[in-house]
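lol ok so funny story. i was supposed to be doing the assay writeup but got distracted and ended up predicting the structure for this chain instead. priorities right. anyway since i did it might as well share w the group, maybe its usefull for someone
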Amino acid sequence: MLKSQSKKAVLIELDFLRALGILAVLFIHGTSSAVASTDPNSSLFLVFVFINTLSKFAVPLFILISGISLFYNYYDYPLNKKSIRTFYKKRFLKILSPFIIFSFVYYTVVILSRYEWSSFGQFISHFFTWDFLIKLIIGKTYTHLYFVFVIIQFYLVFPFVLYLLQKNPRLIKWIVAGGLIIQWIYLLYAKEIGIPYVKSGFFAYIFYFFIGAYLGINYNHVQQFWNLKHRKLLGNMLFWTAFVLSGAVNIVYFVFEAQGKELFSQLFWVELKNELYITSACFMMLSLALWIKRLHWERLKNILVQLSYASFGIYLIHPLLLKLYRMTNVGGNSLTYGAWITGGFLFALLGSWIIVLLAGKWKGHWILFGPIPKRRF
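and the output, tada:
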């Protein structure tokens, strides 16, 4: 049976990573309306862009976490038809029901916001169209659901990648480079061959998944390598340098674009700036998670673990709370507007977290939010 190895140590740093990832998601979505509506020449715009742009590692970080978790837990186990069937059943039961339910919920929100209500028949007819069916399948009924569709794709290909690496262990040292090449070819040429939703394809994130795969398979060896003081110092210096420089380039690029200027327009350079920033940011977050693990701040650790447990449910529901919050009008100066944006972030985070925690007391909570692990910290 394909099951996780019970004797393996629990990687609590992955819980910390998920918590950091969901906070980054909330930073992106919490500032998105401000970035779109604020004067690009104002200092307040720069603040919002700073927060929004530097949080763009969120989805790749979750992909990397999935790669680490899957390959760390399952690499040592043989595959057969029964184990693959068990894997698919276990994984898709966790994710498909919430994905489908929230796809209907968000499409309902879109319909009600775009069209005037005339009759129930007219309303329900929107769900019997090719447009809805296609958007349902690829996670496009609302902007954030594409991530779930991407994760589903990785679950589909995981047993095949695992089988290939188990049969050919020599390929393991090449998977990161291979992922980088595949991802770049896809991103540079996907539109040319007619792929409409480029970032909804798992190839757009396969580099991060394969980084996670390599780390998951070799986790203990990587930890031993990283724990040497001079290597950790050198590594952090390299990651911090890449993080700061590429982050600055991304911020300047976004500001210039918003002001109608052009820093560079070639797709190669656009993707390169994204790649450098996201990769360095993911490693910085992993380094931060390992640092938190070494701390003796048990209260902070417990909060982050609980946030991690609720992260999938928070991801699913927080846009509804943001939409509700933004129905209120705000006026006044920059300080007032900034406080209102901050309030939206806190309302979405704490409100959705409370909803998921309360739902966790219900036996069938997995239908809406997937399984919420029992407290183990």
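Residues 127 and 133 are 8 Å apart (CA to CA). The chain has three domains: 1-56+295-377, 58-215, 227-293.
back to the writeup now i swear
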